[in-house]
């Protein structure tokens, strides 16, 4: 699936089958590929097939990078086609294990919320927030959905704002406030005969729809290719024609950061960096029946790595390690400009 393909134009069954075939070819990337395949199975309406993919991953001899995320997705999917008891048992197991990754917490809390278990959803969001966020520190971007989800559920429960709701307001970036987005009475405004109320609701819905469309239409990042210093030296020594693309390592790093900033300023979201290796690139070139010296293969190689789940999101948090591997924080390295 191309990253610019509108979600409504996707043949989800065909895309799932393609991803499953790719997972057989690249077993080292099977987890990322099969998770995407399972998502397409769910979107196609074939939820038992999605469960089979989650079970395939959980039964695999290979260690999973995100086992709790796989379990959370399986629980959410099971509940959608009538297996509530099993889904609840998995959710309880995840809450007891208390993983340090926000993603499974978001999945199980939203599963509870979508089935009107608002009190339990609130308890789950709150448990995750207390576990993963520290007072006085800026929450990392992956944890923002925990704050937003908790705010949304508390709004539906009629709870007064607390310090975590205030924090959610500070990290929220859409032009519509969280209180407006999460107002349980919003739906009734659609029946209003007041043009001003209807126009305001359309603006709010467009803000939400835009975020959902963007997430669905680009299942993997627009990625820029990064070569570590040793790999770049090996690459240009083996294929001197590529030295025109990479005059020096420092120039290579500067070009990556500049390209990503330009993409971000143009409105492109979901950006990432993929790290190449010479053996992997040579194998990719062979699969394309082409020479590794062909510079036109480089962006295709980057896209392939991103599709295989190898991209790291850009930009990092300013306090996180810089993507270049210098050992310094992003804010003190390539994020300093």
TrEMBL record:
List the Pfam families hit by this protein, alphabetically.
SEC-C (PF02810)
InterPro entries listed in its UniProt record: SEC_C_motif (IPR004027), TPR-like_helical_dom_sf (IPR011990)
Q: Extract the Gene3D superfamilies matched here.
A: Tetratricopeptide repeat domain
Superkingdom in the source lineage: Bacteria
SUPFAM superfamilies associated with the record: TPR-like
What is the designated name of this protein? SEC-C domain-containing protein
Q: Which organism is it from?
A: Streptomyces marokkonensis
């Amino acid at each position: 699936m191309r990253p610019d393909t509108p979600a409504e134009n996707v043949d989800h069954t065909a895309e799932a089958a393609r991803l499953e075939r790719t997972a057989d070819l690249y077993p080292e990337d099977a987890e990322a590929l099969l998770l995407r395949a399972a998502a397409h199975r769910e979107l196609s309406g074939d939820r038992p097939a999605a469960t089979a993919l989650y079970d395939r991953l959980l039964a695999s001899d290979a260690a999973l990078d995100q086992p709790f995320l796989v379990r959370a997705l399986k629980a959410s999917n099971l509940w959608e086609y009538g297996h509530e008891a099993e889904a609840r048992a998995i959710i309880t197991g995840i809450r007891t294990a208390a993983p340090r990754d926000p993603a499974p917490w978001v999945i199980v809390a939203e599963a509870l919320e979508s089935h009107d278990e608002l009190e339990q959803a609130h308890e789950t969001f709150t448990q995750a927030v207390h576990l993963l966020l520290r007072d006085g520190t800026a929450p990392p971007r992956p944890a923002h959905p925990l704050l937003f989800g908790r705010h949304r559920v508390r709004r539906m429960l009629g709870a007064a704002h607390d310090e975590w709701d205030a924090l959610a307001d500070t990290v929220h970036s859409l032009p519509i406030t969280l209180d407006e987005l999460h107002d349980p009475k919003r739906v009734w405004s659609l029946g209003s005969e007041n043009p001003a109320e209807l126009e305001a609701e359309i603006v709010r819905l467009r803000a939400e729809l835009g975020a959902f469309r963007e997430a669905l239409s680009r299942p993997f990042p627009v990625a820029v290719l990064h070569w570590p210093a040793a790999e770049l030296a090996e690459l240009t020594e083996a294929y001197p024609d590529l030295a025109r693309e990479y005059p020096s390592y420092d120039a290579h790093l500067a070009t990556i950061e500049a390209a990503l900033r330009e993409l971000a300023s143009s409105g492109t979201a979901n950006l990432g960096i993929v790290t190449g290796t010479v053996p992997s690139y040579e194998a990719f070139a062979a699969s394309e029946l082409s020479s590794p010296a062909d510079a036109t293969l480089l962006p295709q190689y980057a896209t392939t790595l991103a599709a295989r789940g190898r991209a790291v999101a850009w930009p990092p948090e300013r306090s996180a390690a810089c993507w270049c591997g210098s050992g310094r924080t992003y804010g003190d390295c390539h994020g300093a400009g």
